TrEMBL record:
Domain named HTH deoR-type: residues: 21-76
Protein name: DeoR family transcriptional regulator
InterPro entries, A to Z: DeoR_HTH (IPR001034), N2O_reductase_NosL (IPR008719), Tscrpt_reg_HTH_DeoR_CS (IPR018356), WH-like_DNA-bd_sf (IPR036388), WH_DNA-bd_sf (IPR036390)
Domain of life: Bacteria
Pfam families reported in the protein's UniProt record: HTH_DeoR, NosL
Keywords: DNA-binding, Transcription, Transcription regulation
SUPFAM superfamilies noted in UniProt: NosL/MerB-like, Winged helix' DNA-binding domain
The keyword Transcription is annotated on this UniProt entry: yes
PANTHER family assigned: HTH-TYPE TRANSCRIPTIONAL REPRESSOR YCNK
C-alpha cells in the first residue's frame, strides 16, 4: 500500500509545484491549444497547483497574446484556432499530403501565423527551415492522440509500423517509457527533438550515407 502511495507521490512531485514555471506554461499551452477554453479551477487540477500559481503562470501567456482572459478562465486567442472551414487547403505545406489530425504537426509562428504539416517528418523539416520564426510547435502523442509540445516530445524513427505518411517515418510520443515500449515491440530508434531533427536533415541531404532521399520531397526524376 505505502509503495503505491510513494509512487503516487513521486508522480505528483514531477508535476505541479515542482515543475518549473516554464514547464507549467508549456503544459497550459498544450491544454488550451487542445481544448480552446479552460477554467482556472480545471488548470489548477490538471497541473496540481494552486489557483494562485495558475494565475501567475497565465500572466505571461496573456501578455504574449496566446490566451485571452474570460470569466473564471481563459480561452485560446482566436488567431490560434484551428481553421475549421474546409475551403481552406487542408494539405501539408511541405509534401501536399492530406492532413490527418492525429498525425498532424502544427507550428505557431510570429505574426499569428499557424502552419500545419501532415506528420512529424514534415513538421521537423519545416521547423528547421523556419528556425527562429517558430514560437511554439505542437504534435500528437501517437498512442493517446493528445496534443504535446514538439520540443519536449520523444521521437521514434525507423519503426516497422506503417503510418502511411512520409518516409522516413517519424512518430511522436509524450512519455519516454511508452516510446521505449513501442520501440521494443515495433523496432526503431528513440530520439529527442534535436536528435530527430539532426537525423532527419542528414537523411534528407544524404549525408548519413544512405543515399536515399525522401520520396515525398524528391521531385527530380
Ligand atoms: Zn507533409
Ligand atoms: Zn507526412
Amino acid at each position: 500500500m505505502s509503495i503505491k502511495v510513494d509512487i503516487l507521490h513521486q508522480v505528483m512531485k514531477q508535476r505541479g509545484e515542482n515543475m518549473l514555471p516554464l514547464e507549467r506554461q508549456n503544459r497550459i499551452k498544450e491544454l488550451v491549444f487542445e481544448r480552446i477554453n479552460m477554467k482556472i479551477s480545471e488548470l489548477s487540477k490538471e497541473l496540481d497547483v494552486s489557483e494562485m500559481t495558475v494565475h501567475r503562470d497565465l500572466k505571461s501567456l496573456i501578455d504574449e497574446g496566446f490566451v485571452v482572459k474570460t470569466f473564471g478562465g481563459i480561452t485560446l486567442a482566436q488567431k490560434y484556432h484551428k481553421r475549421q472551414d474546409v475551403s481552406t487547403t487542408n494539405n501539408c505545406i511541405i509534401c501536399h499530403h492530406h492532413i490527418t489530425e492525429r498525425l498532424s504537426y502544427r507550428l505557431i509562428l510570429h505574426h499569428h501565423h499557424v502552419e500545419s504539416l501532415c506528420c512529424a517528418h514534415c513538421g521537423l523539416i519545416r521547423q528547421h527551415q523556419l528556425g527562429e520564426e517558430v514560437m511554439q510547435a505542437f504534435c500528437h502523442d501517437f498512442l493517446r492522440h493528445t496534443t504535446i509540445s514538439a520540443t519536449i516530445a520523444w521521437y521514434v524513427m525507423g519503426t516497422s509500423v506503417d503510418i502511411h505518411c512520409c518516409q522516413p517515418q517519424v512518430l511522436t510520443f509524450e512519455r519516454r517509457e511508452e516510446a521505449e515500449k513501442f520501440v521494443k515491440g515495433f523496432g526503431g530508434q528513440l530520439l529527442t527533438f534535436t536528435e530527430a531533427t539532426r537525423r532527419l536533415m542528414n537523411h534528407m541531404t544524404g549525408s548519413d550515407g544512405s543515399g536515399t532521399r525522401c520520396q515525398n520531397h524528391d521531385t527530380s526524376g
